[in-house]
Amino acid sequence: MSDTALLAAVAARRDALIALTQDLIRFPTLNPPGLQYLEICEYLADRLRAQGFTVEMIRAHGAIADSDTYPRWNMVARLERGPGECVHFNSHHDVVAVGHGWTRDPFGGELDGDRIYGRGACDMKGGLAASIIAAEAFIATHPDFNGAIEISATADEESGGYGGVAYLAEQGYFHPDRVQHVIIPEPLNKDRICLGHRGVWWAEIETHGRIAHGSMPFLGDCAVRHMGAVLAEMEASLFPLLATKRTDMPVVPEGAKQSTMNINAIHGGEPVQEADYTGLPAACVPDRCKITIDRRYLIEENEGEVRAEIIAVLEKVKAERPDFHYELNELWSVSPTMTDRNAPVVKTVEAAISKVLETQAEFVVSPGTYDQKHIDRIGTLKNCIAYGPGILDLAHQPDEWVGVQDMEDSAKVMALTLAELLL
Q1: What angle do CA 121, 126, 129 make, to 5 degrees?
Q2: pTM for this one?
Q3: What CA–CA distance (Å, rounded) separates 37 from 48?
Q4: CATH topology for 199-270+281-334?
Q5: Pairing of strands 325-334, 199-208
Q6: Which end of the chain is more exposed for a tag (fewer CB within 10 A), N or C?
């Protein structure tokens, strides 16, 4: 059967694509804390079983954040037609907090013109829906394909993916003997192929002081002032250094082609009281101050270098300030990753984009990490990309939306990819 028939089968499912996306948005799978993970997985399991898939419901027992109150549920569906390779579409089902500034119902799935609005519409329930429609159209037009199709909906990507893809990778679900091609339908724009991501290194820095009465600060030692010196040294030496580090990775947007660091949080002194507390603060010199840093680094760097730069800042301040004491606590890290442009899944999706969109695919690298890190690092599967509908800049924003035509076009690209790899 021709590509024309396959593309027509995707187009004929446009209304189904809209309805599926709306249904998925209406599950408020907020992370944290991890709401309705089981419900959305059961919904998808019922749909895919009706298409002949064998479905596994997998709770990430013992993973970070998994609890009986908020269990980390994942769904993996597989349809196998005999010998051949396996193409796996992996999407996360969790979404971030709604935040302020919405003019639409965040979980309404409202269709307005070509756009479907809602938290997770772009990141990444639209991509999940597109992959399912692509698979359904392909199965309908090519029921006797070779190999296997897998579709997964996984937990906690927005908080590191440890209760989702990392857990599945540890259980062997992404071993190269089981799965040969992985497409993650993250919202990187429908004409882009995302080859990987920058590295990340998170850490906490705590400065120590000595508590005393606030009217006699000379009897204490202010940890917040010590932290101020750390921040000043970062401004003077570290941030200018990071601005000089540039990469050959095709990172988007332009500002992420250099090394970056974000001060994620700062806390010092008396804790913030509950909202119903109406009293005044106590007069104390703070004896602890802590910052959390989020360092994003390039494939040309390594984790040891990143760590050494932070230690150099702290040791310089220590040499200049009497009684300066600090602790450095590393929270987590992920190395940069980038799939080869000549990898089979890359070349196949590139050709499909050319056919559907009549344009050359743009190759990009994500400024932040996503679940490719676990497929690569734990699963040891290198033939993996991110490709899906949606505009990256809309992710986590108020009035988040995904375009219906973008989803349809991406579904066509995914369907042609299945045809090339499984026929």
Answers
A1: 140
A2: 0.91
A3: 17
A4: Alpha-Beta Plaits (3.30.70)
A5: antiparallel
A6: N
> Pick from 181, 179, 110, 173: which is nearest to 386 by CA?
181
| Domain ranges within the chain, ordered by starting residue | 3-197+336-422, 199-270+281-334
- On whether the CB atoms of residues 391 and 187 are closer than 8 A, the answer is yes
Residues near 68 by beta carbon (within 8 Å), at least 6 away in sequence: none
pLDDT at 82 over 90: no
Express each pLDDT in 321-372 by its tens digit.
999 999 999 999 999 999 999 999 999 999 999 999 999 999 999 999 999 9
CA 76 to chain centre: 18
Q: How many helices (H) and strands (E) does the chain have?
A: 11, 16
Catalytic residues: 94, 157
Whether the pLDDT of residue 161 is over 90: the answer is yes
pLDDT at 2 over 80: no
Decide: 295 and 258 in contact? Cβ < 8 Å: no
91 — phi, psi (to 5°)? Answer: -130, 145
Give the closest residue to 16 by CA, choosing from 404, 315, 417, 422: 404
Question: pLDDT of 165-224, one tens digit each?
Answer: 999 999 999 999 999 999 999 999 999 999 999 999 999 999 999 999 999 999 999 999
Q: How far apart are CA 386 and CA 404, in angstroms?
A: 19
- Looking at residue 1, its pLDDT comes to 55
Report how far residue 406's alpha carbon sits from residue 409's, in angstroms, rounded to the nearest whole number.
Answer: 5
Long-range contacts at 55-59 (CB < 8 A, ≥ 24 apart): 58/167, 58/168, 58/171
Cα separation of 311 and 307, whole Å? Answer: 6
Question: Which tokens go with 213?
Answer: 């009465």
Could you tell me which residues come within 8 angstroms of residue 96 by beta carbon, excluding any fewer than 6 positions away? 30, 31, 119, 123, 158, 396
Say yes or no: do domains 3-197+336-422 and 199-270+281-334 share a fold.
no
* Sign of the torsion angle spanned by Cα atoms 155, 331, 266, 243: negative
CA distance 76 to 171: 12
Select from 381, 238, 246, 367 the least CA-distant residue to 314. 238
Size of the chain, expressed as the number of residues it contains: 423
Contacts (Cβ under 8 Å, ≥6 apart) of 241: 309
Check residue 415 and give its pLDDT.
Answer: 98
CATH number of 3-197+336-422: 3.40.630.10
Residue type, 255: G
